[in-house]
Amino acid sequence: MSLETLNFAEPFFTVKYIIDEPEIIISDKTIVLNIAESPLYVAGMWLAPFQSIISTDVTLYNVEKCVLVERFDDFDDENTLLEKVRNTWPLAYEVRREERLKGVGHYMSPKNAVGNVQFSMYHASTVPLNVGLHKNHVHLGGEEPQEVHTQIVGFGKMQQCREKDISTLFLEETMAPGCTHKPMFDAELSYPWHQYETITPGIFMAIEILTSGNPIPR
Questions:
Q1: φ, ψ for residue 165 (rounded to 5)?
Q2: Can you give the pLDDT of all 218 residues of the chain as single tens digits?
Q3: Is residue 95 within 8 Å of 56, Cβ to Cβ?
Q4: What pTM does this model have?
């Protein structure tokens, strides 16, 4: 049983990672993301794997693996917050050196890893973002993770396409604060062509679960 406070999103948000706790009390407004293989119980309902909600003044039960994001709306002015983030986090291209990220207003927090789970946040600063359709996660050295994204600030959409062409779009999920898109990977950890696109400038969290169990420090 453990509760670990992670530092990758500081000083802007507080993120906690919880493993094998029978119950957790939530007092303040908090994004709750279940990343276990089993559902957790909250407010009279089951929260399925890779689902998230915003909760306050509740108790979580049957918590196997869960991520909490606190202070996600604890700011007076969203534009001021996003400006501070841009002055703190580097561009994702500077960290990952992926060609599709070159010249894109896409900023990346530090990354935390706990066991085989990696945590990071991104600030998408332009509308449109034009981050580029992709189906492989080359920044992980060839390993494909179980990956989902949770909206923290602002509004976006996760888009899936049949080909590397936005005109072949077949699924789009709107993401508001507290929302996590449905997992896109199949049993073989294959992904469709996909991208995150902005509706407004915002921030989202990426969770990468590596089945190899070997975290990649980047």
A1: -160, 120
A2: 789 999 999 999 999 999 999 999 999 999 999 999 999 999 899 999 999 999 999 999 999 999 999 999 999 999 999 999 999 999 999 999 999 999 999 999 999 999 999 999 999 999 999 999 999 886 766 678 899 999 999 999 999 999 999 999 999 999 999 999 999 999 899 999 999 999 999 999 999 999 865 544 44
A3: no
A4: 0.93
Q: Measure the CA–CA gap between 35 and 37, rounded to whole angstroms.
A: 7
Four-residue CA torsion sign, 160, 208, 177, 53: positive
Note whether 115 and 215 are within 8 A (CB): yes
Q: What is the DSSP string of 74-132?
A: --S-HHHHHHHHHTTSPBHHHHH--GGGTT--EEE---EEETTEEEEEEEE-SSS----
